[in-house]
Amino acid sequence: MLYLTLSLVLSLAGLLSAGHALLHKRDPRAALGWIVMCLALPGVGMGLYWLLGVNRIRTRARDLQSQGSTWFEPSLCAWSRESAEQYPFRAENFATLLHLSDAVTRRPLLQGNHIEPLHNGEQAYPAMLEAIAGARQSILLSTYIFESNPTGRRFTDALAEAAARGVEVKVLIDGLGERYSFPPARRLLQGSRVRVARFLPPSLSGHGIHLNLRNHRKLLVVDGVLGFSGGMNIGDRHLAESSDPRRVVDIHFRVQGPVVGQMREAFLEDWQLATGEGFHQEKPPAVAAGGQAFCRGISAGPNEDFEKLPWILTGALNCARRRLRIMTPYFVPDRFLIAAINAAALRGVTVEIVLPARNNLPYVAWATRSYLWELLLYNVRIFYQPPPFVHSKLLLVDDDYALVGTANLDPRSLRLNFEFCLEVYDRNCNRQLAAHFDTVRAASRQVLLADVDGRPLPVKLRDAFAKLFSPYL
User: Which positions, given as ranges, span the membrane (predicted)?
Assistant: First the structure.
């Protein structure tokens, strides 16, 4: 009798969970998958659905957006009322992207910024530590992984020293990302004046246990006027010249100018979610000396009403008239991305994609290979960059536009993670990034359609099986 009652309860709960998926999942494939799982696996399927398939995160930033807050600084956007044609985003193709980004990002495009690429930890970490050492008022640091190896300890020591001299120091570490290292970096900061918070740590209370919905953002804002962002976490593995077998190649960016205010805002939104503490907007920093870049900070994540990154990526790819350069460590394209890339190639745009020859997540590389033939068939040029593992993320459109930051081109980044990217209109910066891309491409091996078609049958089956789990990789 007890067994029958339990079966009925689990079946009813599974049915209700399936109904929830039917009503709330936007992607019909995801909805169908969860419905089948909830009904076919009573109890287990329902548990997995509520653990992995339901987004219960809503932040104040999203509330402000729904209430109509414009987050706009007209004094910094006088160009928006001008008709001058020297602005690249006023070109016919980029004007549509500007309108799209204006509509979905809740932040304006700001002029007068200076963006400097920093390659690997050898360039990025000294610049970041120097900024921390020179801080006088505040340090805001957000990272997905904060390792406790020698590099991590250099940062914890610098942060503790800054806090000891009276600087307000806030450090936000992802609740799962911190577990990549032991002891956790936050333990190294215990006893100091540094305030440390964890973003959505696994818990049976509060926001619950989330294996997805991770904070993948990397932000450092010093005194509200100097910022750093890009693909690098904090740890020895980003020292590309080291002997660490896990070492990676990556790009970070030093940022000065008004857009640093948007980086500060992005950090404080996450800090509010993690701690419940409110914050107030401040006047953006002044225009950077010699700053020529027009930039916009994009906070994307499951707390937003729009799927910002998929929409902006589609808009940016559609803007290309001559050349598209894409560099990403994880490439698991959705149908929209494949369509946009192929459409660009078919209208005569030179499309080049650089991927790592050796991926730190083999199953992602397997899934990736199952997609490549769809692009190679339409003359998209794909290259494998030799080891060490390449973690860099770049999207360059013609000579005018770059999208850089933390997002990979996979479902996890585009739909599940909290990400931060920068839109950059600056021909000088884009020229530097294009030169780096072209140098890397020249040293890489081109992938041909014959290579993909010539895989042994067991390899094709393995890759195709991994592809089935693309939405969850």
Answer: 31-52
CATH number at residue 245: 3.30.870.10
Q: What percent of the chain has pLDDT over 70?
A: 84
Query: Into how many domains does the chain fold?
Result: 3
Assess contact for 185 and 178: CB atoms under 8 A: yes
Token pair for residue 255? 């940022």
Any residues with CB less than 8 A from the CB of 375 and at least 6 apart, and which? 338, 341, 342, 345, 351, 353, 382
User: How far is the C-alpha of 466 from the C-alpha of 336, rounded, in Å?
Assistant: 20
DSSP string computed for 14-72 = HHHHHHHHHHH-SSHHHHHHHHHHHHHSTTHHHHHIIIII------HHHHHHHTT----
Crossing angle for the helix pair 28-40 and 2-24, to the nearest 10 degrees? 180
The HSE-up count of residue 350 (CA atoms within 13 Å, CB side) is: 7
Q: Which helix (H) or strand (E) holds 271?
A: helix 259-275
Same domain, 122 and 266: yes
Q: Quick check: helix, strand or coil at residue 393? A: coil
Say if residue 432 is in the same domain as residue 320.
yes
Give the DSSP H/E element, type plus range, for residue 197: strand 195-199
More confident residue, 156 or 208: 156
**pLDDT for 46-91, tens place per residue?**
767 666 666 655 554 455 444 333 344 444 454 555 544 567 777 7
Mean pLDDT of 416-435: 94
**What confidence category does residue 214 fall into, taking pLDDT thresholds of 50, 70 and 90?**
confident
> What single DSSP character describes residue 221?
E
Phi-psi region of 398 (alpha: psi -120 to 50; beta: other; left: phi over 0): left
CA 123 to chain centre: 21
Contact assessment for residue 113 and residue 288, using Cβ atoms and an 8 Å cutoff: yes
91 within some domain: no
* Nearest Cα to Cα of residue 252 among 69, 125, 358: 125
Which letter, b or e, does each residue of 418-456 get, where b requires 16 or more Cβ atoms within 10 Å of its Cβ? bbbbbbbbbeebbeebbebbeebbeebeebeeebbeeee
DSSP 412: I
Beta strands 226-230 and 168-174: pairing type? unpaired
Q: What DSSP element (H or E) covers 326?
A: strand 323-327
Closest to 231 (Cα-Cα) out of 124, 357, 386, 158: 124
